[in-house]
DNA sequence: CGCCTTTGTGAAATCGTTTTCACGCCTTTT
DNA sequence: AAAAGGCGTGAAAACGATTTCACAAAGGCG
């Protein structure tokens, strides 16, 4: 029971401050019903001993862990890393810690990670998109764990949502390209399997084209993972086709950057021969040449607002259950009026 | 005490399996001294009840939290996000959870985050670089918390290190540019205040130049945060100088990309008029035109190896205390022999 | 065939807090 | 002047697991 071994405990503080553990606990938790003199003694004793509360004991007794979990596909993509950065920053202002897990876009793996989070006692979980194993959500509900979807605006009965409407974003891209006079379209989508966001963008894009009389069968869609090389090879497939598109919508800036790189290498002029629209508005959108026209995703805000939802009281949460953020079209040099 | 409220507890499993809590605990923790029949009953009971252990209680009693903390400057920079991705992936293979905090390059803020981590009971902490408040490290040591520096190869008495030698990297850049025949150098460094990595790269660069007879006073060094715009404005300052450099070493690819962008806009030819070397080898190094010559930092490996260190037993750790990873020079199009 | 391990199990103590309850004192109300 | 309430405090129970200890049964050995 040496105080120097691993540090002082609450009872040591109590002894030094000459009061009961209960009083120390009250002081530490900001309970106002403590005499000022005693309070000072406790604060000083805690400081002198270098006392750090034991979070496990605290969590066990109070059933509040001040722990939040996030399961994202990967941190290796700025769109998620930035969201998490915003989320973490806001949470830590309120002394809430964030446990991060990556799923690798695999909802079975996501379930395993979720289980681990539940075991850790997280009070809320941030998820990406709305495609999840029912068992994952059921587990959260059974344990009364609050969860929020991000990158989508569709809340469900039990899950809140902070994000944007992927279909609407796809439609916006289509509308913009249609207005530039294009008639031959293609899309390089992210992998749509188990990915409602990638699928939503594609569906919105195709539906808007269809509304303008362009049959979906006439619009080639290829899918690629979110890496430059995939963008490159996808673009190659599209441009090798007899019916070359003049406008290509990409499910992410990375894919678009790869696509433009391919054009560069092959001497295909962007935007003269083909217009390219990206998605996300990452830093790289300013590095392609020409710079990339894209749809801006408010990743950091999404994280912050998800944090606000989590930090809100249960009653406040009702008002915050569904939050749709705006997607802005950022026009740069990679798109142009179709040439005749 | 309704089982449906928040889930079953260990004692509920024991009751259903018709054995004592101790036995359930043994089964759950893989203790071999349990009869197979009983083990099966317990496993089945746990599954049927959807039992999830309470991590806080477990941690309190066993003094093992299986929690690790990481404090990084920001997640908004791929070099850190990727390291964390590797770290997390490896840790979660062993069911260890990672709490992430960002410091914003501020060692006072880092201390606050560290305190929070200690309170949570993390068993190890991953830090970036070797510049920290003494109080931060003292707190870890007092609590017997294991810590690892990353992005540096200098271990200390109490702290292990997984990373690379920033000075050596700076010297490598200098050597390479010297060998190309350059004589007029400059550097766009990251902010060196409280940042041993940025300072190390600069010092290595300048020292190697000096060894070849180039006085440090003749080498302008400007500092910028890690954003494109900073690279741009820094490059402007360098190029506006009467004594224009023909070779610029940048402390990060982001700065380099901004620098090249500036040259592009001003009609300064890269590499014909000025060679640019970056640092990190991020994805963006392939997106500048010309593509960027840079030094590759093995970010993901660093995270993985830091995880291996953390997961190792105390005796194994002795061998792993200091791990220097190699930095590779990746030559692309942004550098050339000096023109005469 | 007794003695000594080994194996499998349960009862009870324990980890470090928070929370509930009760108590004494002082003030206010009737 | 008695009753009622508020305030500050401490004793003890509780949170849900793991761990220690004890003990019975079974197996090995001389």
UniProtKB/TrEMBL annotation, chains A, B:
SMART domains: HTH_LACI. One of its GO terms (molecular function) is DNA-binding transcription factor activity. It comes from the Bacteria. InterPro entries: HTH_LacI, LacI/GalR-like_sensor, Lambda_DNA-bd_dom_sf, Peripla_BP_I. It holds the Pfam family LacI. Residues 8-62 form the HTH lacI-type domain. Coiled coil: none annotated. Keywords: DNA-binding, Transcription, Transcription regulation. This is Glucose-resistance amylase regulator. It comes from Mesorhizobium amorphae CCNWGS0123. The lineage of its organism: Bacteria, Pseudomonadati, Pseudomonadota, Alphaproteobacteria, Hyphomicrobiales.
């Amino acid at each position: 029971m040496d105080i120097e071994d691993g540090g002082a405990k609450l009872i040591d503080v109590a002894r030094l401050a000459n009061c009961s553990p209960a009083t120390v606990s009250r002081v530490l938790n900001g309970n106002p019903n403590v005499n000022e003199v005693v309070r000072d003694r406790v604060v000083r004793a805690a400081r002198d001993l270098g006392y750090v509360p034991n979070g496990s004991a605290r969590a066990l007794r109070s059933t509040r862990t001040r722990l939040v979990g996030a399961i994202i596909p990967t941190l290796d993509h700025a769109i998620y890393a930035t969201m998490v950065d915003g989320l973490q920053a806001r949470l830590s202002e309120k002394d809430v810690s964030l446990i991060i897990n990556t799923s690798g876009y695999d909802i079975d793996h996501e379930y395993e990670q979720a289980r681990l989070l539940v075991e850790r006692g997280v009070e809320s979980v941030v998820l990406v998109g709305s495609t999840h194993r029912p068992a994952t959500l059921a587990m959260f509900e059974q344990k009364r764990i609050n969860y929020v979807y991000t990158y989508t605006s569709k809340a469900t009965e039990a899950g809140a949502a902070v994000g944007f409407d992927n279909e609407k974003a796809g439609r916006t891209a289509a509308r913009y390209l249609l207005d530039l006079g294009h008639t031959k379209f293609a899309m390089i989508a992210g992998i749509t399997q188990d990915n409602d966001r990638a699928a939503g963008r594609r569906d919105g894009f195709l539906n808007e084209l269809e509304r303008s009389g362009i049959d979906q069968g006439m619009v080639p869609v290829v899918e690629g993972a979110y890496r430059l090389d995939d963008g490159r090879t996808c673009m190659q497939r599209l441009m090798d086709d007899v019916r070359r598109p003049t406008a290509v919508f990409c499910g992410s800036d990375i894919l678009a950057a790869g696509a433009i790189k391919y054009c560069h290498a092959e001497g295909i002029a962007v935007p003269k021969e083909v217009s390219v629209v990206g998605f996300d508005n990452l830093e790289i959108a300013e590095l392609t040449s020409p710079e990339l026209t894209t749809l801006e995703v408010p990743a950091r805000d999404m994280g912050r607002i998800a944090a606000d939802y989590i930090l809100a009281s249960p009653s406040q949460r009702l008002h915050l259950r569904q939050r749709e953020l705006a997607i802005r079209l950022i026009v740069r040099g990679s798109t142009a009026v179709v040439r005749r």
